[in-house]
Amino acid sequence: MKYASQSGHIKKRFQKNSNILIVPIGPLNPSNSPNMNTLINYISNFYQTEVKVVSPIEILTVTDNYITIKSDQIDNYQIDCRRNSYFKQIQLNTMGIFKILKKLIRTHPCFCMIGLTMYDLYSGEESNNFLFGEADCKSYVGIFSFSRYSDYFYNRIPDQFMDPSLVLSIEEMTKLLWRACSVSVHEIGHMFGLEHCVYFQCVLNGSNSLQESDSQPHYLCPVCLHKLYHLIGFEPVKRYKELGEFYLNNAFMIEYDWVNNTLKKIES
C-alpha cells in the first residue's frame, strides 16, 4: 500500500507521543460556542488517544488590520486580520497563527497541536477566500474555525455572534457542536497523512461551502479507516461503541444509527 510506505514517519511520531493538544484562540463563550469538554471527548473517541487543552491564546486588541495576542510564552504578538467584505466579520490570517503554533509546539511534546477559534479564517493575500480550517502537516499544527458554523455569523452585524450575551438555543448548540465535531476530526486527519478523500462519502471529503460540509458524514470511509488503523492500531469495536455512546448522549441520532448498524454487521 502506497500510504503505508509513505507514512512511516507519522507512525513513529505517534508511537513516541500520541497526545493531541488543543489551543483555544480568542473567546469561546459557553453560551454560543461548542462545549470544549464535549469536543475533546469526541476527538479522543474518534482517534482513540488522549486529547488535552493547553493555555489559551488571549486576544488583547482587535483592529480591522491586525490583532494583538499573548499566551504563556508569547506576549504582544500581532497577527494580520481583515474584515470579510460581505459579512463584515473579522478574519484571521492563518499564516500568522501557524507561526505562533510552531513556536508553542516546540515546548509542548505531542503528536500534533490544533488551534481552535470562533474567528473566521483566511489564508495568504487572496481577497475573497475563507477557510473552515487548515493544516500544516509538516509541522504538525493546524487551525480550525467554528465561526461559519454559527447561523449568527451571516447576519452581517460585526462580531455579534461572538458576544457573550448571545445565548444559543439547545437546537442551535446541537447543530454547532455537530459541525464542530466534523471539522475538528477532518483537520486532525490531515496530521495523520490522510488527504481529502475521493473514494466514498467520508468525513475527509473536501468542501468549499457550508452546504457541502453539512452533507458529509461523520465517519471515515473504508479506505481512510484502514489507513488510520495502520497508524494507530485501535480496537474497531471499542472505537465504534465509544462513538455510539457519544452520538446518543449528544442527540446525533443519524450517526448513532449508523454506528449501531455497523456494529451489528461486525458482530453478526
Write the layout of secondary structure elements.
Layout: H1 2-6, H2 8-16, E1 20-25, H3 36-47, E2 51-53, E3 58-62, E4 66-70, E5 77-83, E6 90-93, H4 94-105, E7 112-117, E8 120-122, E9 133-136, E10 141-145, H5 170-191, H6 210-215, H7 222-232, H8 236-249, H9 253-267
Helix pairs in contact: 3-5, 3-8, 8-9
How does the overall form come out from the CA principal axes? globular
Looking at the overall shape, the CATH architecture of the domain at 15-187 is 3-Layer(aba) Sandwich
The count of DSSP E runs of length 2 or more, i.e. the number of strands, is 10
The major beta sheet can be summarized as:
5 strands, mixed
Descriptive overview:
This protein is globular. A hairpin with a 3-residue loop joins β3 (about 60) and β4. It is about 40% helix and about 20% strand. With about 270 residues, it is an alpha/beta fold. The strands form two sheets. Strands 2-1-7-10-9 form a five-stranded mixed beta sheet, sandwiched between helices. The chain has a five-stranded mixed beta sheet with strand order 3-4-5-6-8. The longest helix is centred in the C-terminal third of the chain and has 22 residues, at about 170-190. α8 (about 235-250) packs antiparallel against α9 (about 255-265). It has a domain at about 15-185: Collagenase (Catalytic Domain) (3-Layer(aba) Sandwich), CATH 3.40.390.
